[in-house]
Amino acid sequence: MARIQIEIPEQFPFSTDVPLYLSHMNYGGHLDNALLLTVVSETRMRFFQFFGHTEMNVDGVGIIIADAAVQYRSQAFHGEVMEVRMAAVEFSTYGCDLIWCMNEKISGREVARGKTGIVFFDHAARKVMPTPEKFRANFAS
C-alpha cells in the first residue's frame, strides 16, 4: 500500500511551542491521531496572528480548510512540548497549502508532518475569494 509522503521546506517562517495535555492522549497513552489536528489548528491560528490576521479576516476574507494530510513519524506523550513550524506554499488563485512539521522540543524527535489546504472564503456571501496579494507577498522568495 502506498503511503503519503509530504516534503517539507528547508526553512519555515513561523514556529510555535504547544504543550501536550492529558486531553490530547488516547487509550494507548500517546497523542491521539485526531487530536493531533487540534495542535495543528492552534498552530494555524497563531500563524495567522503572527502575520497580522485571523482565520476570519485575512485582508478582508476568511479561510476554510479544503483538505488535510498527515504523515505520522513517532509517538508523542503527555507533558511533552511540541515545536510546530508552518509555511504557506503552492499558492493558487483561491488558496494555498500550509505545510507543517511537529517535533518534540527537547529531543528534536519528529512526531508528524502534514499539509493543510486552505481556500480563501467570504463567509457572509458563502463564496470562494481570490488569494489576498498582501498575504501572498509574505511568502514571496
General description of the model:
- The chain is α+β, with helices and mostly antiparallel strands and 141 residues long.
- The protein has one domain: Hotdog Thioesterase (Thiol Ester Dehydrase, Chain A).
- The protein has two helices and six strands, in the order βαβββββα.
- It has helices spanning 33-50, 133-137, and strands at residues 14-19, 62-72, 81-89, 95-104, 110-122, 127-128.
- Strands 1, 2, 3, 4, 5 and 6 form a six-stranded antiparallel sheet that branches.
- β4 (95-104) and β5 (110-122) form a beta hairpin.
Descriptors for this entry?
globular, single chain, Thiol Ester Dehydrase, Chain A, alpha+beta, 141 residues, six-stranded antiparallel β-sheet
List the helices and strands and how they pair.
Layout: E1 14-19, H1 33-50, E2 62-72, E3 81-89, E4 95-104, E5 110-122, E6 127-128, H2 133-137
